[in-house]
Amino acid sequence: MFKDLEGKVVVVTGASSGLGRAIAKRFGQEKAKVVINYYKNEGKSDELIGEIKEAGGEAVKVQGDVSKEEDVKKIIQFAIDTYGTLDVMVNNAGIQNEVPTEELSLDDWNKVISTNLTGIFVGSREAIAYMLKNDIKGSIINMSSVHQIIPWPHFAHYAASKGGIKMLSETLALEFAPHGIRVNCLAPGAINTPINKEKFSDPAAKEEVLKMIPLNKIGEPEEVAAAAVWLASEEASYVTGTTLYIDGGMTNYPSFQAGKG
């Protein structure tokens, strides 16, 4: 547990399911004040609020589409209006869809880039502007992916967005380090989230994924959430401009394990 997170105000975008839900819940377990952003699933947000309060934290919900600048501003202002400040911004919301690049429409490209990259830019910008104005040495955590460095055919828009998140985060970290504002990325690999449920329910497909993971296991959302709270805590006070990979070693060229290559 990280006692310094108790009472801190944390915004988590895309928090009604998957990684965002696990992250928001873990911050709640740390007794933080959590602002849960959801896009469509209000019911699951209500469930999560109950779980966070049961764990000793506080939580409220706010609807918003992070691909829209006015919605991101609304989410952050809601947090400030509700809890009086903002200490941690977790830009988690993201989308993906598989399309061969030669068939990828500009609309599909723009939708993924607007949500995954532009949404994180606006969320980071607005949070940093508030922190600067109020002399808050806050933490920005941006959800990336192993695909910020691993190419992924049929997901050109997704991989491009994640590569952009890496460089955006490193640039912001460098720019605002003198103000004590830390900016880092989380880059999960294969995680047992609802979006992956169908793939991992197929034994053959799961086995193919496991071949790419040296630790030979699928990660759990709670393992990503543990990394998020550590990055936000004082224990990570000397960490900025970096990416923490939670991938079981996927980025370590697993085909070379056992002396191959």
UniProtKB/TrEMBL annotation:
Keywords noted in UniProt: Oxidoreductase
Lineage top rank: taxon: Bacteria
Enzyme class: oxidoreductase
InterPro entries, per database record: NAD(P)-bd_dom_sf, Sc_DH/Rdtase_CS, SDR, SDR_fam
Keyword Oxidoreductase: yes
EC number in record: 1.1.1.47
Keyword Transferase tagged: no
Annotated GO MF terms: glucose 1-dehydrogenase [NAD(P)+] activity
Family: Belongs to the short-chain dehydrogenases/reductases (SDR) family.
Protein name stated in the entry: Glucose-1-dehydrogenase
Organism: Metabacillus flavus
